[in-house]
Write a structure and sequence with these properties.
seven-stranded mixed β-sheet, two-stranded antiparallel ribbon, mainly beta, 1 helix
Length: 145
Amino acid sequence: LIIPAINVDAVIQQVGLSESGDGSMGVPRNFTAVAWYKNGSIPGEVGSAVIDGHMNGKNVPQAVFYDLDLLKIGDVVMVVDEASTTRTFKVTDSKVYDYEDSTEDVFTSDTSNARLNLITCAGEWLRTEKLYNKRVVVFTEQVVE
């Protein structure tokens, strides 16, 4: 995953649902990689592919998606697959969700085009729950060349 505007050049891992059993998407195994939800669309296919990444960690003040919220409409996101094929996407929107809000639209947004939605944590760290109270989602659409 390459995002020039925020200096991201990360390996993409595959994940399913979280091991927590709460129905949430799994997360990358480290703070420099991102994770693609393998039970959804593949980046470049019609539908909404989803990639998440950490914002930070206990001993990692700035992880791969630390600056995700700085992306603007029109910024470029590229996915390079195992065959070295590059698919280019442009940012179309971004939203901040409360942790408790439904994010179903992240996985099922308009299926008329290939979309790639990027997600990370945001907001305030809730010590007792061990999570952030917000999520930042950046919506992109594939650029057809």
